[in-house]
Amino acid sequence: MKLAIDGMGGDHAPKAIVEGVLLALEDFPNIEVQLYGHQQQLQPFLKEHDRLTVIHCEEVVEGEDDPARAVRRKKDSSMAKMLEAVEEGRADACLSAGNTGALMAGGLFKIGRIEGVSRPALATTLPTIDGKGFLMLDLGANSDAKPENIVQYAIMGNIYAQKVRGIEKPRVGLLNIGTEEKKGNELTKAVFGQLKETDLNFIGNVEARDLLNNVADVVVTDGFTGNMVLKSIEGTAGAIMSMLKDAFMASSKTKISALLMKNELKNLKGKLDYSEHGGAALFGLQAPVVKAHGSSNARAIYSAIRQASIMVEHDVVDVIKTTISPN
C-alpha cells in the first residue's frame, strides 16, 4: 500500500516526521511512503530506502493559516500535494501533523465525503486504566451536530472498532451528564432514541468521569463537547505526570522511591501516552485521512502510520461505504 505523508506539518517537523517514517518502514514491509516537503529541510534527517520517495514542495501550510483557504491557495504545499496524491489515486491514505482545520477542509475539498455521510467526524483512541483504550468521536470536526450525524458517528466508530481494534461486538456509549435514559439536552435525548433502534451494541449513556474506566469501546458526542473532553483528558494526564515528578523529586527519600518505582512509573506514563494510540482519523471521507497530534514525536508518527496502514489493510472506508451509502 502507498501512504502519502506531510513531512512539514507539526511542531517537531521535519525531524520527527522523517524519523517516524523511517521507523515505520523498518517494521511494516507492506507500506511504501511518499514524503512531501522541502527537500533541503528534509535532507538532514533522511536515509535512503527503496520504499521511500521524497516529493519536493515549495510551500508549507502553517498553523496560523486560515483553514478554508490554506490548501486551495498553497497549491504547492506539502499538505495540498499529499491530499492530491490520494485524490488522484496515487496513494491509498494520507497523514499530517499540521493544521487540523486545513487538513479537514482539504480532505473534504479534494478527497470528498462518502455518499450518505452527512458530516465527517474526527476520531481517536484514548487511553483507559486497563490499557485497552476506547474510540471517541466527534472530537472537533463539527461543533454542531444533529441526531442523525451522531448516529452515523456511532456506525462508523463501530466499524473501526471491529476492523482496526479487533472488537467483535463493540460497546457503544453516548456521552451524557448522567446514565439515565431521560438525562441530557434535546440533542442527546433524540440521539438516545435513535441509537436504541439500531443494530449496534448500544449500552446507553456514559458519563465523562467513567471514560477512562473502560466503560465503552466507542463513545459518541458532538464535536464541541468531544473536543473539550479530549483536551481535558490530555491536560489532566499531563498535570498528573508533572505533579508525580515534583513529588518524587522533593527529597532524597522520595528520589530513592522514584528509582525503586522506575518501571511502574514508566508503565503509567505509557498508559497515558497519546503517541502509542496513533492519530485522529477523519471518518466519512473517500479514503483514510489521519491527523497526528501537533506535538507528535517520532514514536507518535510511527503509531499514526500504523493506524493508517491498518485502515487501508482492513478496507475500513469501503465497509463504511457499504454500510452507510443509500445505494
Largest sheet: 11 strands, mixed
Percentage of residues assigned to helices: 40-55%
Q: What is the name of the CATH topology of the largest domain?
A: Isopropylmalate Dehydrogenase
CATH architecture of the largest domain: 3-Layer(aba) Sandwich
Poorly predicted spans: none
Number of domains: 2
Q: What's the overall geometry?
A: globular
- Distance from N terminus to C terminus (CA atoms, Å) equals 28 Å
Q: Pairing-aware structural class of the strands and helices? A: alpha/beta
The CATH class of the largest domain? Alpha Beta
* Number of beta strands: 11
How do the strands line up in the largest sheet? 3-2-1-4-11-10-5-6-9-7-8
In DSSP terms, counting alpha (H) and pi (I) runs of 4 or more, how many helices?
A: 12
Subcellular location: Cytoplasm
InterPro entries: FA_synthesis, Phospholipid_synth_PlsX-like
GO biological process, one term: fatty acid biosynthetic process
EC number: 2.3.1.274
Can you tell me about this structure?
45% of the residues are buried. This protein has two domains: 1-117 and 284-327, Isopropylmalate Dehydrogenase; 122-275, Isopropylmalate Dehydrogenase (3-Layer(aba) Sandwich), CATH 3.40.718.10. With 327 residues, the protein is an alpha/beta fold. The chain has an eleven-stranded mixed sheet, sandwiched between helices. It has twelve helices and eleven strands. Helices cover 44% and strands 16% of the residues. Belongs to the PlsX family.
